[in-house]
Design a protein that fits this description.
Layout lengths: L1 E2 H5 L6 H8 L6 E2 L2 H8 L9 H12 L4
Antiparallel strand pairs: 1-2
Length: 65
């Protein structure tokens, strides 16, 4: 298992820097990138918004990130 921060650091830019900027759960442990992105922060409370992070999450699940 990795921490949320460790998982987010594996994202490609610009997602990595945006996710790390928004992160509130950096030391929580997760078993996958998709789980980490869900737990990292409240999507709707970010500048990018829920739809942006939902799309990123779906791309992760589909193996496109």
């Amino acid at each position: 298992m990795k921490t949320v921060k460790q998982w987010l650091e594996t994202l490609q830019e610009p997602y990595r820097s945006k996710a790390l900027k928004n992160m509130t759960a950096d030391e929580d442990k997760r078993d996958s990138l998709s789980s980490a992105i869900r737990a990292a922060f409240v999507w709707s409370a970010t500048e990018e918004g829920f739809d942006y992070w939902d799309e990123v999450h779906l791309n992760i699940l589909k193996g496109r990130e």
